[in-house]
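Archive maintenance. Older records in this collection stored only the sequence; we are now back-filling the structure field for every entry so that each record is complete. The fields below show one back-filled record exactly as it appears after the update. Entries are processed alphabetically, and PX-domain-containing protein is next in the queue.

ARCHIVE ENTRY
Title: PX-domain-containing protein
Organism field: Heliocybe sulcata
Length field: 710
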Amino acid sequence: MSTLPRSTKSSLTPAGVSFFESRPVSDFDAGINSSTAWTQANPSTSLSDDEPEDDEEEAGQAARALYNFEGKAEFMELTVEAGDELEVLKEEVGDGWSMVRLDKNGEVGLLPQTYYTFTADFAASPALEIPQFTRKREPSAQSITPRGSPKGEKEALPIIPQHTGEWFPSFRQSLLGGKSLNRFSSFVTSGAEQWVLKGSTSEPSPPRSVEDDDSDEEDESSNRLSRVGMGEADRHFVDVGPAWKTKVPPFRVLVHSPSKRTSSLSGAYTIYSVTSLFHPTTSEDGGVDDSPPGSPMRITVHRRFSHFVVLHTALTRRLPGIALPPLPEKQYAGRFSDDFVEARRGDLERYICRIARHPIARYAEVLTFFLGCESDLEWKKQLPYHLSLPPAGPSFYAHVFHPAFNLDADDATDAVDRFDAHTRAVGKGVQGLRNIFGQVREARVEMSKAERLLSYSLLSLITSKPLASAPTTGISEEEEEDNPQRKGLLNDDNAWCWRDGCQECLKLTKAMQKTSETLQNVADLYDDHARRTQLATHEALKSVAHPSSMYGGVIETHRSALSRYNTAVSQQPTDDEVAARCETVLNTTMAEMETYHTHKVEDFRTIATDHLDGEIAFYEQVLARLKTARRTFDPPLYDTDADSPHQPSMYERELENPRLTAKPLTQPCPHVYDSAPMRPVSAAIQEGVGMIFGSSSIGRASVFGKFWRP
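Back-filled structure field:
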């Protein structure tokens, strides 16, 4: 088996030389994506979970087209030729597109970010000629594409938070199973291709505000959660395995205490308390101490959903080589309801906890800033710095360090095939498990109804009062009109007997009434268990759903790097530098696969144990109540029931109108990658009729009823 070569330092290619190669023309139409970019670029049609912040209007920047591009007019795309003068009105409008104006005719439209370069810092060079090179169109899998010519410090602009999707799955998700249409592959958008072909060019330093130059102490306080040193957060190490080498121990993050607030500028929004718990105790060798930790250090900050979007977008730009969990979806209606706020809180907590436990992401500078900046003034002062950080691109891989000969090419090929098949199978299995678990919750509600009906029937038996929903009670209408005591149904102590003063029947009646009331308590336990404990488990299953979609970019990058490696080692002479850079990319992707393996074990073990603990606690409560009811039939409790007359039960008033109709179960918010199954039009029409006339026999009230349940 061939072994990957030792990693060596690569020579840097001069800035400005394109790394793109000509590729076959793709018949894959990505018009949906470009139309989405146009919609996102138009402020009048933009949608947001929170009210939009007030942003200053960006001035256009001078640029020049690098390649010929034939746009499609129906999707508002520009057609440009290499060398055309452009004015970039908005650099990022989503999915790797920019809003530009063509100087020669003033036409405004969309243009891929990789097809132009800024000319603000260009020097005059009469001898320079622009080659007539045409860039072919290809599908993509990311919304941000690194540019070959980085901007200078003055040209860096704040990033725009990405669109995280709709509350209910869109038709694109319905057709593609949660995948989106893009122009370029993950191998390109992550910067791995540029790194493999020509290494990494020097990355410009992000612009600093005037306040940042006042004191270095302020910079230190803003990064209080991570003491990894200047620039250390951008250096990543891979151990033998390959597996990521951790720099800081894992910590826990809680998202709690949501509250509604109103701003005169941004309107109403929900703010969440985010508390980070750190255990400072460590072992002598620097690892995590297994001894019981002391009181953890707590840092609590307040963040809104838009802040989480900024965090996610910044992490995506700075850590393109790792698989980040998706953000929960946005909500356009009912986002202040108690059920939705609680569901959003749980989703945000699961998201930030997955970020905090990733061995690379948890010491990212933007994460430590997000979790540690307690001052609103400091937050507003430092936020522009993090928003203006350029995409890492190939520099991410340039700062990945690993042992030489850390993996074998044949093993890497076999590993990615097995990993791809495994994640697909896990995703399919989890989807089935989520569906079955929903049925289990519904069954618990039905069991609650059955226990309650049994309680009513038992109470109806000992009181001789008819149950409204019972098919028959054995009592005629004439008997119901008369006093039951005169007919021998109840005696003078309201005991279930025709003999007056019968103490045995009095004790039996009281014991059976307590049994009936216990069954009501058991029914309440079943209902509460399905709505709270099992709902938490149902929500937690989303954290292990769709691993193939989450790691799709890693798999694609891994296979592309393997292909480039095989080409580099098979040609004569062997391109050792390209092969060595392929080794770096493969170490990164293999480390991500190992991270998934570790997290999978942790996640499924936690979900299983939490479910079992919840079931044990539930059945222990049921068992305790049943044992209490059972003791009422044994002395001395049974004997003391004869000391006083029988008193009516609090549930007797419900016999005429029993509580057998439960409100619908609260369903988990759909996962970002969930796809809505396409159903026949007749089913949608029937549900629409049911929504209008309120007929329960037709079905759900709305086509999207399962997503809009309270």
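Update note: Residues 21-198 form a domain with the SH3 type barrels. fold (CATH 2.30.30.40). DSSP finds 18 helices and eleven strands in the chain.
Entry marked complete.
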